[in-house]
Design goal:
By secondary structure, this protein is of the alpha/beta class. The chain is about 30% helix and about 20% strand. It is built from ten helices and eleven strands. β3, α3 and β4 form a beta-alpha-beta unit.
Length: about 230
């Protein structure tokens, strides 16, 4: 704290994402702290392309990490009217994740395709091996299984990008890096991997954003001090 107390002498104003963060900053010696919410929740990503909504229920495994696809696919049972779209978090894992999804599809008698090759979502299991498509897919999704939260070493991902379209959101319990963003969304269902199938058989609530960050004071301060 002695180091931060010295640094805070040179900082005129601090914008914190939550009251808890404000309290922590105060304990470190910060002054003049404004709780403005998480900036990510103030600037929602918009779709860059509009795709037609598939007739099936669309289940998206979104921003998945190493270990998650294997865990989820091992337990997952799709219904006859379900379409599964897998969007790995990192492009260097497209090949690895695609192999797992292809094996899952073959085991269950489902069709499989890579989005980079077909440019559509006609197959029952689709690997999205392209960047910048996730928000476009959220737009027509019915259920989002949010990755980064089913293994203990990531800490979760932003649920607001999906929730802005009021789809159902299922998350794991490891969200320690995104607690402020999760608190801004109502209706998220938390589950262990072996509980996902049970939730998919239920009438899931639609996730809704209940609190957005406010950047008006930040922008005003920037304009006045430029």
């Amino acid at each position: 704290s002695f180091f931060y107390r010295y640094l805070f002498k040179f900082i005129d104003k601090i914008y914190a994402q939550s009251d808890l963060d404000k309290q922590r900053l105060q304990r470190l010696g910060a002054k003049n702290i404004v709780v403005s919410g998480n900036i990510k929740s103030a600037f929602l990503s918009s779709p860059s392309k509009i795709y037609a909504k598939p007739k099936e229920r669309v289940i998206v495994l979104a921003s998945t990490h190493a270990g998650e696809e294997e865990l989820i696919l091992r337990e997952l049972n799709l219904g006859s009217n379900d379409k599964l779209i897998l969007v790995p978090r990192h492009p260097e894992r497209f090949g690895e994740a695609g192999e797992m999804l292809a094996k899952f599809a073959a085991k269950n008698g489902l069709s499989f395709a890579k989005f980079s090759e077909t440019k559509n979502f006609d197959a029952q299991c689709v690997l999205v091996d392209a960047m910048g498509e996730l928000v476009n897919i959220y737009k027509f999704s019915d259920v989002v299984v949010l990755g980064g939260s089913f293994v203990p070493n990531v800490g979760g991902h932003n649920p607001i990008e999906a929730a802005q379209f009021e789809n159902a959101v299922i998350s794991g319990e490891f969200i320690f890096n995104q607690k402020a963003l999760y608190s801004a969304v109502d209706g998220i269902k938390f589950a262990k991997v072996d509980e996902i199938n049970v939730l998919l058989r239920q009438d899931l609530p639609k996730a809704k954003i209940v609190a957005k960050g406010d950047v008006s004071e930040i922008l005003k301060d920037i304009e006045e001090n430029l």
